[in-house]
Amino acid sequence: MAPEPAPGRTMVPLVPALVMLGLVAGAHGDSKPVFIKVPEDQTGLSGGVASFVCQATGEPKPRITWMKKGKKVSSQRFEVIEFDDGAGSVLRIQPLRVQRDEAIYECTATNSLGEINTSAKLSVLEEEQLPPGFPSIDMGPQLKVVEKARTATMLCAAGGNPDPEISWFKDFLPVDPAASNGRIKQLRSGALQIESSEESDQGKYECVATNSAGTRYSAPANLYVRGLAAWARSLMGIWSHPIRLLGVCACVCAHTGTLICV
């Protein structure tokens, strides 16, 4: 016979209570890592750049590590840049070396519940070994100073066969226009357009052209975002030397940051 509850107390059936506790724990429980971005195989140019991007989700947040031939990557030419509190990571290799850097690179995401792995292959070619159609950067981004809240456009044009896809990196991290609420757009030309520019948009930009033949990076270019007074001072500082040499006056288009000599 089941015991009678004490006066003033209500007995809760044990099994439903345990089920309820399990549901609550599950709603706020931990989870194993799952990849949301994985590195892709790349063919790069000797002396150039390669970047592998890896990101995972999980609870607690996983940490990303990189391995080459079973050992944690370690070299002056290798740089690991973290984002998303360590749950995302970019492995950047520069300058690329034939044979020395050709390998399988492994990304590992780890948290207290488990570990997952994925990998990508890097091939490196000398200039004379490049296959037909390997991407070329016909026009890369240039140094730009823009007034805060104005629109900044970083140009990029690339060729290749098939036509390469263009992507962008800022300070060695991939630019994701979808995460900007429409403020940052990649135009059909490949240019990166940044509306209502903010100081956080300052940085070093690279455009990357990729097709089935390989990947080529542009030379980096800095974007500076300044208040009106600082913007004018920055431009005069940047162009003071050529102005002195030419002995001419100059004005700058406020919309584009382009120097116009008159």
Automatic annotation (TrEMBL):
Keywords: Immunoglobulin domain, Signal. InterPro entries: Ig-like_dom (IPR007110), Ig-like_dom_sf (IPR036179), Ig-like_fold (IPR013783), Ig_I-set (IPR013098), Ig_sub (IPR003599), Ig_sub2 (IPR003598). SMART domains: IG, IGc2. Residues 33-123, 135-224 form the Ig-like domain. GO terms for cellular component: axon; plasma membrane. It holds the Pfam family I-set. PROSITE patterns: IG_LIKE. One of its GO terms (biological process) is axon guidance. SUPFAM superfamilies: Immunoglobulin (SSF48726). GO terms for molecular function: cell-cell adhesion mediator activity. Residues 1-29 form the signal peptide. This is Protein tyrosine phosphatase receptor type F. The gene is PTPRF.
